[in-house]
Amino acid sequence: MRVTVAVDCMGGDHGPSVTVPAALALLREDPATAVILVGLSSAIESQIRREQHAFGDRMVVRHAAEVVGMDEPPALAMRSKKDSSMRVAIDLVKSGEAQAAVSAGNTGALMAISRFVLKTLPGIDRPAIATIMPTENGRVYVLDLGANVDCSAEHLLQFGIMGAELVSCVEHKARPTVGLLNIGEEAIKGNETVKQAAELLRASGLNFYGNVEGDDIFKGTTDVVVCDGFVGNVALKTAEGLAQMIRKFLRAEFERNFLTRIAALIALPVLNAFKRRVDHRSYNGASLLGLRGIVLKSHGSADAYAFECALRRGVEEVRTGMLAHISERLTQMHRAPAPQDEQPPIVQAVS
Amino acid sequence: MRVTVAVDCMGGDHGPSVTVPAALALLREDPATAVILVGLSSAIESQIRREQHAFGDRMVVRHAAEVVGMDEPPALAMRSKKDSSMRVAIDLVKSGEAQAAVSAGNTGALMAISRFVLKTLPGIDRPAIATIMPTENGRVYVLDLGANVDCSAEHLLQFGIMGAELVSCVEHKARPTVGLLNIGEEAIKGNETVKQAAELLRASGLNFYGNVEGDDIFKGTTDVVVCDGFVGNVALKTAEGLAQMIRKFLRAEFERNFLTRIAALIALPVLNAFKRRVDHRSYNGASLLGLRGIVLKSHGSADAYAFECALRRGVEEVRTGMLAHISERLTQMHRAPAPQDEQPPIVQAVS
What we know:
Two copies of one chain form a homodimer. Chain A is of the alpha/beta class and about 350 residues long. Helices cover about 50% and strands about 15% of the residues of chain A.
């Protein structure tokens, strides 16, 4: 079955010059996809001139007159820009014309509009943002990445459920392991919220590993790492900052003088292989989880390759029926909570 | 004037085989230092045999019969092990026989014992752990790193004051910039505690830069980054995990086959120069700030070079009169709070 993606062509640092070529690449490489290119039609069409008719009805341009600014307050963008490319793309998911929306625009606005238009799934208080990161032995899904700065234990449980279903769908793992981000492995560590969340996760029927620490993210200790949005955002950005610094230092050393430049030439294939392994572009595309629809956020600075990765991620979530799986799991937990000792937290969490 | 450091020789993964050679190296390289080597005297003496009399009264061995285990609950270590090497080292600071104590042992126990024996400075509710990290253009001091998992805005203010005085002493910067770790630069971002802390810091008379994000740590945006211990610990460990992964990937690519091994040989001087630049060993030694005495925590896995760096850091804090500077700043703020608009938070914070 064909999967149609609504593409917010105006979002991100580069707009249509990145988003449109990425969409065209997706169409070329995956014949079972279609795209609705949303935004200023003149700007979009100038990017597709040569391939105007190459994909027949698999490519449609939908004009939207407004653009949400990268620094615009989310509430304002939601209320006042009903004809923004972001809003129209999400409306297309709501109406069923598209099965997923992808945007590189303002994260806060994307979350606010998605939540307002699509609503949350039953049993989910707050949607979360989940991203993929490389690990020593594969990849890990981390959530929340900044949508929720103050999380209760129940929210963290919900993130665990959604993260596990996401991984089980897109990575085809039957019972993905879930870790709770903390500052020590022992159960006595951490603040009250985290301690309670550990209790809930332990009683949830999920494959709960227990507490993990910051370094476990990249060690690949678990398939999913759950944390509140403040901590997750700091962890992600700290990692980005360190990666950037290492890149700069490595380059500076190889460019120091004539001899080091020769060494760089000789080491180039090795350095390129290394770069491919940690290429953040291939991990682009964070999932907004917990909504009644599939929405993905691309990094604002994404290039066409990175943005295409986010589009592919959206297609994959549709094909694997991720939404239905999350809903089903929530319903199951609501009906028949897993065996537990004292407290009945699951019912609390999803009711 | 001679600076005497009490060395907990038994702490850390390697004990006297690392701590004693590190102390001897300090004595050799810095004639204005002395050490009191605390721990099982037989274990210590077997490491110093050849240099037994080389340093005269600059080296003393103080026998302590007990050792605090790396996983021992801090409260237990504090109450039941009055003759542990850690406790005796801190007692030596209390009695004035040493001006600083350095340990690679159990962090929680070190903090609990230090707090119990030395007490906090007037105006400080909770001591914090401050560490140094490399940045694109120098170094940054980050606190708290895990001593406090639930911090109020006033605690964050106190961390800012202590961090700024630390940097002003050991880095000789007149007015170091202080950043508040948050998930966005705008003042509206973050949770309530962080927003309030920003108000307090803005009114404190410190050189407050404003909010910073995770990537600003390694960009070197500010000299000091303030955060609660949960977030700081996750950020630090995430960075450690990423650095480890990158190291492994880089090594794996260079060891892939015969050709890549040759490339590695040729690139070796460059790779070594790069390694020196990000060598975490030279950043070893986290300061326990806010106590009436100077205590430093070395990484448990430190080698002799890294442990010596922590010893040097302690010596530096003594020589620059860091403790007096922090106390003075707190007294000043207590007497004459900086001009401010609505709330008088400083008095609240230090009273």
